[in-house]
Amino acid sequence: MMEIREFRPGDVDALVDILKANQQYGHPEIDGPEAMLRVEECVAAEFLVAETGEQVVGMIRGTYDGSRAVIYLASVHPNHQRQGIGRALVQEIAHHFQARGAG
Questions:
Q1: Which residues of the chain have pLDDT under 70?
Q2: CA–CA separation, 52 and 57 (whole Å)
Q3: Residues 64, 69, 73, 77, CA torsion sign
Q4: Distance, first Cα to last Cα, the chain
C-alpha cells in the first residue's frame, strides 16, 4: 500500500538515493540534504513523499506563490516506476495547491 505524506527530515538519505538513481542529483547545493531541509521550512513550498510500507519510493516538490503553482522536481525510484506513483504524487500536490487557493 502506498502513502503520500509530507516530507520529514529522516527522508533525506532515501531521497538522495532516488535522485541519484534517476540521474537527477547533479547539483547537491540545490537538491541535497541541506537544501531539502531548507525547502521544508519554506512556507511557499510543497514537498511530498511517496512511501510503500516503510520504504520511501518517490518525491515531488513545488511552490505556490499566491498566483502560480509550479512543480519543479518529481522523482520515483526506477524499481517503482510505471506503478502510478508519479501520477499519484502529481495529483496530491495539485490538491495541496488547490487547498491553498490555486485555480
A1: none
A2: 7
A3: positive
A4: 30
> Per the structure block, which three cell numbers stand in for 72?
519543479
Grid cell locating 88: 499519484
* Beta pairing class for 69-76 and 2-6: unpaired
Q: Quick count: other Cβ atoms within 10 Å of Cβ 85?
A: 22
CA dist list (Å): 35 to 15, 65, 96, 103: 12, 19, 21, 28
Interhelix angle for 33-41 vs 12-21, to 10°? Answer: 120
pTM higher than 0.85: yes
Q: How far apart are CA 28 and CA 31, in angstroms?
A: 5
Whether the Cβ atoms of residue 59 and residue 15 lie closer than 8 Å to each other: yes
pLDDT tens column, 70-99: 999 999 999 999 999 999 999 999 999 999
